[in-house]
Write a structure and sequence with these properties.
The complex is a heterodimer. Chain A is about 0% helix and about 60% strand. Chain A is an all-beta fold. In chain A, the strands form two sheets. In chain A, strands 2, 4, 5, 6, 9, 10 and 11 form a seven-stranded mixed beta sheet that branches. Chain A has a four-stranded antiparallel beta sheet with strand order 1-3-8-7, with no helix packed on it. In chain A, a hairpin with a 2-residue loop joins strand 5 and strand 6. By secondary structure, chain B is mainly β. The chains are: A mainly beta, B mainly beta. The interface between A and B is medium-sized, with 22 and 18 residues.
Chain lengths: ~110, ~110
């Protein structure tokens, strides 16, 4: 399994505040991904990265931005959190066979 | 819009029986296919990858792929209560590093 960690694991914040979630992988994988998972919607891709400083939008990117300054780190930022962004967020990275390995997740609640 | 469809379940099978999980996909050019297991409150865990038509076996798990019918399945032999989880089907399209996930099938193995 890929060594992927996420921080924080749980966060409660208020509407309108900025929030940054961090993903760290130790497998030297080039590709990294941010998903959100909600009941009835399954896993949906927010943003992904195909290298340092190379990122692109996924299916549900509005209200989110990402940055990748090092191979091992991929940050997801909610510029101004809204209640609709309450969700479980998963980071993943993929190997050369396109197998994706997931981090433990961050449970975010926006009040 | 690439789609991956799964029966949401729940699928209930008795302990020791074969559990059969099915997935269809819309993108005929899809190249890679994955099955993930997700326990409640946990992150998805990769259990099988399949890339060519036919069967692939790994322990009690067998993945079956039929590209002509755009169909991939997962068989779990000798089902155990510990197999009770939600199983996610994921598909990688041609020329893409992104996966499209189905919403998952919830499996319950009854002792």
């Amino acid at each position: 399994d890929a060594g992927i960690t996420q921080s924080p694991r749980h966060k409660v914040t208020e509407t309108g505040t900025p929030v940054t979630l961090r993903c760290h992988q130790t497998e030297n994988h080039r590709y990294m991904y941010w998903y959100r998972q909600d009941p009835g919607h399954g896993l949906r891709l927010i943003h992904y990265s195909y290298g340092v400083k190379d990122t692109d939008k996924g299916e549900v990117s509005d209200g989110y931005s990402v940055s990748r300054s090092k191979t091992e780190d991929f940050l997801l930022t909610l510029e101004s959190a809204t209640s609709s962004q309450t969700s479980v967020y998963f980071c993943a990275s993929s190997n050369l066979n396109n197998e994706q390995f997931f981090g433990p997740g961050t449970r975010l609640t926006v009040l | 819009q690439k789609e991956v469809e799964q029966n949401s379940g729940p699928l209930s099978v008795p302990e020791g029986a074969i559990a059969s999980l099915n997935c269809t996909y819309s993108d005929r050019g899809s190249q890679s296919f994955f099955w993930y297991r997700q326990y409640s409150g946990k992150s998805p865990e990769l259990i099988m990858s399949i890339y060519s038509n036919g069967d692939k076996e790994d322990g009690r798990f067998t993945a079956q792929l039929n590209k002509a019918s755009q169909y991939v399945s997962l068989l779990i032999r000798d089902s155990q209560p510990s197999d009770s989880a939600t199983y996610l089907c994921a598909v990688r399209g041609a020329g893409s590093y992104q996966l499209t996930f189905g919403k998952g099938t919830k499996l319950s193995v009854i002792p």
